[in-house]
Each structure stands twice: as C-alpha cells, then as structure tokens.
Amino acid sequence: MADERYFGDREDYQSMEELHRAAMEKEEQIPEEGNERGPWWMYVIIVLTLAFGFFYMGRYLGEISDRPHVLFAEPEPAELEEEEFDPMQVGSRIYTRLCQSCHQQDGSGVEGAFPPLDGSDWVIGDPQRPVNIVLHGFEGEIARNGVTYNALMPGFSRLVSDEDVAAVVTYIRNSFGNEAPEVAPEEVAEIRDATQDRTSPWTEDELNEFIEER
Amino acid sequence: MSQAKKSKQRKEFNVADLDRKARYVVLFLILSGVFWLLFGTLLALVASIKMHLPDWLGSAGWLTFGRVRPLHLNVMVYGWASLTGAGVSLWMLSRLLKVPIPLRGYIIVAGAIWNIALLVGSIQILAGFSRGIEWLEFPVSTMVVIVLCVIIMARSVIVMVMTRSVKQLYVSVWYIIAAFVWFPLLGLVSSFPIFDTPTVQAGMNWWYAHNALGLWFTPIGLAAAYYFIPKVLGRPIYSYGLSLLGFWGLALFYNWNGFHHLIGSPLPTWFITISIAASVMMIIPVVVVAVNHHMTVVGSFSAVTYSPTLRFVVFAAMSYTFVSLQGSMQALRSVNEVIHFTHFVIAHAHIGMYAFVTMMLFGACYYILPRITLREWHSKKLIKWHFWLTAIGIIIYAGALQGIGIFQGFSMNDPDVPFTDTVTMTIPYLIARSVSGILMSAGHLIFVWLLIRMVFQPGEQPETPLIWEKIRKEFAL
Amino acid sequence: MIRYSILLFGIIATFLIAMFGLTILPKIFIDEGVKDPTYFTPFEVREGHRIFVREGCIYCHSKQTRPEGFGADVERGWGRASEATDYRNLLPHNLGTMRTGPDLANIGARQPGEEWHYINLYQPRAINEESIMPQFPWLFEVFSEDARPGRDGLNLPERFRIPGMKILPADEARYLVAYLISLDQETGVQ
Predict the structure, then answer these.
(1) pTM summary value
(2) A146 in contact with B at a CB cutoff of 8 Å?
(3) What ipTM was assigned to the predicted interfaces of this complex?
C-alpha cells in the first residue's frame, strides 16, 4: 500500500535500490528540538533527590580514613539480653552451621568419608567424647558399622562458647533417633580447662586414653 | 593541498551518499557483532543449563561453568554490544554531522583486529588464562588491543566532528563523542598495573565494570534513542534543555557509581557512601531523559505497530528508565543488604545489557541495514516474532530471577535457614531462566536469518518492500 | 567550536575527577596499611589461587564477610567481617559478588579437612545431594587399585566410584586445597 504522496508509484522505480534511494532522498531531517520546561513534578523529584543525596552523604560518610565497616563498628548491645536457653534449638542452629556439611542434616554422614552420628555409641555414650571432639577435632582411622573412616575433623574451640558446645552435643545426643542425657555447659568448661594445652585433633587412642585417665 | 582537501570535505552530502559510503564499514561492524551475539547466546545457554544440571558436560574442563560464564559476559560486552554499538554510532554520527565516515580503511582493519582479539581472548578464557576480574577477564594484552581498536574508531569520530557540515551538535552527538572518549580511557586505566593491592583492585574493578555500562553502552543506547525516536516519528525532541540536563547529569553522577557493588566489603566506608549517594543522584538524569523521551513519543504510540525500529527503541528506552531507577534503589544499604550476592543482581545486569542496550541495538539495526544495503527486510511477521520472543524472554528472565532473588536474600540473612535451602529454592527459577534463554535464542536466530537473507540474499528479494507497506508520512520506517 | 571544546573538556574532566576519586584515592588510602613486601605466601597457596581463578570459583563464591548487623555472615559462622589486611598479595582480588555457594573467606577455619575438599571438588553431589557446584574431575588422576600402593583413593560413596580404580588428587587439586585451607582470616595467610 504505497503512500503516493510520499514516494510516487512502485512502478516508477526499476529496482529496489532505486526505490530505497528515493525513499532516503525524501527522508526528513530530525526536527529541531523543542524547548519545553517539563512538568513541575520533575523538578520536585530533582530537588528531593539532591536533598536526599546530600543528606545521605552527610549522615553516612563515617570518617575519612581507610577503615571499612565504620557504620557497623559496634554491635548493638540490645541483642545480648537474656533469652530462654533451649539447648535443642540453639544446638540445631549450630549443627546446621558447622556440622551439617559433613555429617549431613539427618546425621547419617557420608559413607566411607564422614562417620554417621545416628546410632553412634560415641555420641550417646560418655559425653566427654563428643565434647572433646567438638572442641579439638578428630583425625586418624576409625571403624564404624564395618566401614573404615579416615578424615580430619577440625576443632571448633575458638569458634563456639561452652554453652554452644553443650547445646550442640545435647542436640546430636537427642536427634536422628539418638537418646541420651543433656550435657551442661559446666561440664564443657571443665573439659575445656583440662585440655586447654591441646593444639592438634584427637586420635582414637589418645581420646580413649584421656577418657580412661579421668 | 590540504586546504583543497578540506573544502572538498565540507561539501553538502545527501543522505543516500552518506549511507553508500558507510555501507561496508557499518555492515562489517554490525555483522561481526551479530556473530558474537550468536556465540555469546550459545555460551549463555550452556551456563544457564549448567546451573540446574551441574553434571551436564561436567567432565570437560574448558566447558566448566566458571569459564563459560565469564566468556559469555565478555563476548556479549566486547563482541556483540561494543562492535555493533560502534557501527551504529558511526552511522548515526555520519548522518547527524552530514559527513561520510572518514578513515574507513582504518576502521575495517581495526574491526578485523578486534575480532581476532576476541577470538584469541575467548580461547584464552576457555583454556584457563582468564585475568579473573569480573568484566575484565580477557588478559591485559587482549584488552589493550581492543582498546586500541576503539581509539582508531574514536579518531574517526573526532575527525567527523571537526569536519562536520552542520553547525549544531545534536544531543546524540554529545553522547557518542563522550562514549568514544570515555571507553578508551576506561580501558587503559583498567589495564594499568598500578592497582596491585587486592582491595584497591576490587575498587578499580567495580569502578570499571559499572562505567563500562554507564559510560560506553548507556551513551550509545541513549544516542540511539535520541536519534531514532524523533527520526521515525518526525516529531521534535520535547526539550533541548532537558537533553542538556540529562547529559551532564549522567556525566557527573554515573562516573561515581562503581563502589555500590562493594557495600559490606573491606573498602573504606566513605568511598562506598559517596557511590551510594551518586547512585541515588542518577535518578535526576534518568527521570529527565525519561520525561524527554516520553513527551516526544506521547500521542504517537500507535507508530510502534508500523515501525519495528520504534518498537524496539521504545521498549529499550522504557527498560533504561526502569533499570536505572531500580539500580538507584539497589544501591541503598538497606536494600543492598538483602539483594547483594543473590540472583537479583544478575537479573538487574541483564535488564541493563539486554532489555536496554541489546534491544536498542536491534532497533537501530532494523533502521540502518535497509538503508546501507539498499535491500529490504524479508518478513514483517518474523520481525514481530523476533520482538516478542526477545521481549517476553527478558521479562520472564527478570521476573523469575528478581522474584526469587529477594527470597534468596532474606533466607541468606536468616542464619537459621541452612545454606543449602537458599540454593534449592532457586532451582525452579533457574530452570525458568533457561526457558527464557531459549526464547531469546530463538529470537536471535530469527534475526540472524533475516540478516542473512538480506545481506547474502539466498533466495528472492521480496516483491513488496516493508518500507513500502503501510507507510505513512509521519511513520516512515 | 567553543561549544565543542566545552563539551570535550566536560567529558574528560568529569571522568578524570571520578577516576581520581574511585581508583587513585582508594589506592592512596589503602596501600600504606596493607602493602608488606616481606609477606610470604607459600608456593602451593599461590598456585592454588591461580587455579581458583582459572576455574572461575569466584562467580559463585564470594570471599568477603560483611560486618555484624549487616547481613548474617557472622551469625552463619563465616567469621568476622573482612578487613583490607586480610587481602595482601594474591592478585586478582577475588572479593566476589555472588553467593550461589557459601562465602569462602574463612573456609579454611570451617573446613580444614583435606579429604572433604577433595571429595567436594571431585564430585560435590557425593557430599551434598542438592549441591549445584560443578565437578572438577580434571584436577584428579585415576589409577588402577594396585598402582601407587600406600596411597588410598578418595572415599567416595559407591555410586561415584569407578570399579577397579582409585582416584587420587593430582598436583593441581592439592594446590587448590592448600589454598582453600589457607583461607582463614584469623591466621591471616592470604
């Protein structure tokens, strides 16, 4: 549907090229810009943005130094307020953060690589064993359910408090089908004191020896 | 003699002459760009599918996610968007300043070297020689070659401005000059070996990466919007004053945005605060440009049915407004706390590079190519398919990833949610992303098919040209 | 011509000022406190960092922890907020901007066991069914059971084993794991 006012007739042109050329010859220049002022609300936005920008800089500039995290330097003390301590809840949280990547969410471990916690006699037996392993880690060979494991578990003594260790040990002693008495933070503190010189993870023999001595 | 040459150059050229002279240069740059678009699309699909099928092609080192993903970014940025963007800019400049593109031989050689550099760079990244800095994965030597090629093109830009036969510099010209000055400077600074402390390098990294978008692609995209909207509609740009305000606002504030990528990182707080404030200030040029474009188009929106160019350009201009305002929001610490480190930001980058820059370039291609080849697009229907596949594709992409990105961010900030859950919750949306990727790829294939038929002519030329069909005086394609 | 000069001047000036503000100025502020030419990084760690960069780990794992009160990095047990001095002489910087996988700034403290890393690199699904991390089998060597006596293959679950074969970490895997284990902001080897 040709617009004849604009290009004339299709038949007037021998080829597509010629037609294009004709179309381009008649192409209009970009008209000169208008000079409107724009709607009033645009100026409101500009002023508000400028005001906010300068306010933000003034408020959050912190200090002119090389220090990062200036605005977050002091954690709020309000969070330290005493709340009811539920070892299972706290323990579950710590388990998710620190233990789950190896021992898995359901405590089943990874066969051949990381020993299971469900049904483990070390977990539900003498609490000193799990507490010690959480504090200082474990390395070397160990046989569980007919499978030999040989992996290194790190100690978490500098990452977690006595309460946390007590909570997480209580948690693993009462999850995944395990059932065993709670562990008190005082017991953990006692073990931490007794083993404070330890720098390397436990081996099976060392741990057994330590338990027997006490 | 040079005097004689000069006076010869200053003669009036008509549009057909200009386009004839621009033919091979611009066609070469656009076709190279489109080749890298296809390659980048393939890489994008591989990377996207690997996100939910991690063992797919898992045993091939050179196809691992950590190499394909950065290559996708680099190919799209320095291949597709830069080459095509350069071609489109040179063409617009020649039209606006009424001089033919000078030093055409140099530009073609530079374009060829650029393509070789991209090929070498691609092999380098797949083979594991990545520089390892986001947006700068090509090794420094490769990057410097690319920058030199841009400098050669920038020389043509400057010559065109000096020898122009019009008095006024139209707003698109400002943006193009700025882009061709800024990008080489950016590239050279980023290649300087003085940022040898990791955290300082991180600062340079994000200053560069944000500015590559803000000072190279954004000016080219906006120049195209300022050119094609009034050109296609035959209506004047709403306001010269607003154009001016928008341009200088961008020059002043965009430069300072980079550190909002580093909120919470170990860089000095006050730099980050300045960047956040500058990001918020970007609202000013963005709103001004949006008003300027909107008021130009308003009342003629129906023209998008006739003009494929206008359809892509209007979509792109709207995306620019959206993505920039979103960016200003994202920079605020309280928002950033949630969405930083999540898929939200990935989607944001794609709205910028795809819904804005890429769509704008598609629109420009639909206008430029018939004029420089003097041939016609084959199918109006396929152009429509191209538009809707890519538009719906990017909308699904952004919707899926930004939607889940917010939840991912809140879960990550809740220490009681196991980290694995923040991964598993995103899987359905990553699959949706792959689906949207397939839509966009289909759109690209249609575009390439149209392009091949037009340029290399396998098959007949259409009897009734598009430019001929349904044309109205005020809606010239 | 005057307008053109003003334009060009404005374009270059705005750029240079921002460049000074966001690249040179941070360098002036940060370099002094961080640079330490005597700082020693073992060979394995440097090589491991190179492989970390080569395999593009940073596109999914950030290596920076945010301060307490901003995000939950500290609460998640990812360690204290990163400082500039935690990043000394390994380039590129690897701060990262994505957490498809967990942050690695303190992975050495959280996960010092080499075996875990080897299994996770060889086949992440062996440790976490839901992981979407790529596998890196080209960092490992496959031997028949009786070759290399005295070295045990990876303890993989049954379905990822190759019958009659054992899988040993190659040098590249050992370097990469050495690097990962060195990532501990308390002991400060970076």
Answers:
(1) 0.90
(2) no
(3) 0.94
